[in-house]
Amino acid sequence: MTRTFLIALALAAVVAAPLQAQDAAPARFFIERIEVRNAHRVSADLIVSESLLRAGAEYTEDELRAASLRLNRLPYLLSADFALEKGSDRGRHVLVITVAETKPFFYFIDARPILNDEQRRTAVDYAGSLGADTSDAAIGYRKFIGRRGVAHIGITSRRDRQEFTTDYSAPAIGYTQYDLFGTRAFATVNLRWPVEPARNPTLSPQVVVGIPLTPKHTLTLDYEETRFSRSTTFINDAPYTLQDGERIVSFAWAYNTTNQPFVPTRGTFVRIAPQWSSRDLASYSRFIMIPGTDRVDAYADHFNSYGVDAIAARYFELSDRDSVSATLQAGWTNTEERANQLLTPQVIRAQPLYALIGGGWSYNLRPDAAKEAGDSRVELDAQYVARQGDYDREGQRFVDLNSDEGMRLSAAWVRRNVWGTLRLGLGYTWK
Q1: Strand, helix or coil at 45?
Q2: Using N-to-C axis directions, what is the helix angle for 61-72 and 44-51, rounded to 10°?
């Protein structure tokens, strides 16, 4: 009986120990003041605002760590280290944030051509990823204005490999205001001038509004209108319009605990983005039947689509040199195209979807370098990609030639420092 009682008591202690650990409240630190050091171009008020921390409040160690990671993901900071110093009285602390800024000139270049052998010819795809949040190049200049404002000018390029959006490059100028009305929200306004594949482009606006719910969770609304061409030509005193433009609206929820914005080595990133897009095309064909007599056939095409894009990535830092990652990405879209050529209406409906699962390994070439020196890493990635694009034309189903599946392997060298991020590499796809 005694042995049974002791065994039962030991089991109860084993079960109760985790419960007591869970019930124990984590230590909290009262922050009476926040001090930012080594900030020269970036406003200290902006750094404190983006940390989502406030003086005069208590925070746990996990909350302080999440705020530190959030600052490390800002594109204009190379690093941000937290330290607690003694305050004016016992139990009070001064939070010291030591930062390393990036240069006002910045760049992000992801140059990894993906080769594939199709129909006995070599094709090149420069998109290293899929989905709505893909950009493979940006270069520009950033200027901080006031306490919480940032102006920027530069050139950007988007390649997302989606059938319902258009890849383009464009000069852009914009402004971002942080901590709007003290709500922690931010807003960015961009004016872009698409130069490729545009013919007669006009200024194209973009508005991004977001609010961080916590240092880990953010909601973002993105409205983007791109005007590739717009002009009017008179033939036989009748106006004919050349038009090509698209609108994209997305609403994204993101969970992010990674340690860097472009070359993460640890943490989790999850993003789910419902989106809606439309595109309007208008053109004409001109034939000269008899000298002095023109025949003009107008053409119009309208695309309307909605869908959702999602990605989940997990990064594991095995040592100061090695990091591995796993990625799962998927997207689905419902698309309707209404074309009118030679007065013959045509409706084409499609539901393209894709899925990607992959893994990666990166190796730090400079583990002993100071944080201000940045990162230099070698990356190896393997991905399995499947895309399906069946469509329906006037009730008849067809198989889209863009449907495919296969393995993709790539290798790259990536360098991130105070000037920006450069990734150079090469990949190959087996279908």
Answers
A1: helix
A2: 130
Reduced DSSP (H G I as helix, E B as strand, rest coil) percent helix, strand, coil of the chain, to 5: 10, 60, 25
pLDDT value of position 164 = 65
Question: Within 10 Å of residue 383's Cβ, how many Cβ atoms?
Answer: 22
- The Cα–Cα gap between 78 and 103 comes to 10
- With a CB cutoff of 8 Å and minimum separation 6, the contacts of 6 are none
- For 199, the 3-state DSSP assignment is coil
**Order of strands across the sheet with 92-101?**
57-60, 28-37, 92-101, 77-86
- What single DSSP character describes residue 50? H
Cα(280)–Cα(312) distance, integer angstroms: 33
The residues with which 77 forms a beta bridge, in sequence order, are 101
User: pTM of the full predicted structure?
Assistant: 0.83
Q: How far is Cα 76 from Cα 368, in angstroms, rounded to an integer? A: 23
Q: How confident is the model at residue 370 (pLDDT cuts 50, 70, 90)?
A: confident
Enumerate residues 6+ apart whose C-beta is below 8 A from 268: 255, 256, 257, 258, 312, 313, 314, 315
Q: How far apart are CA 359 and CA 44, in angstroms?
A: 38
Residue written as token pair 């994209």: 248
* Dihedral angle sign, alpha carbons of residues 248, 254, 260, 263: negative
Tell me, letter by letter, the H, E, C secondary structure of 241-299: EEEEEEEEEEEEEEEECCCCCCCCCCEEEEEEEEEEEEEEEEEEEEEEEECCEEEEEEE
Under 8 Å between Cβ of 95 and 33 = yes
* Contacts of residue 25, Cβ cutoff 8 Å, sequence gap at least 6: none
pLDDT tens by residue, 236-261:
666 666 778 899 999 999 999 999 98
Query: Above 50 in pLDDT, residue 325?
Result: yes
Instruction: Give strand pairing partners of 200.
Output: 229
Assess contact for 75 and 105: CB atoms under 8 A: no
Cβ atoms of residues 56 and 29 within 8 Å: no
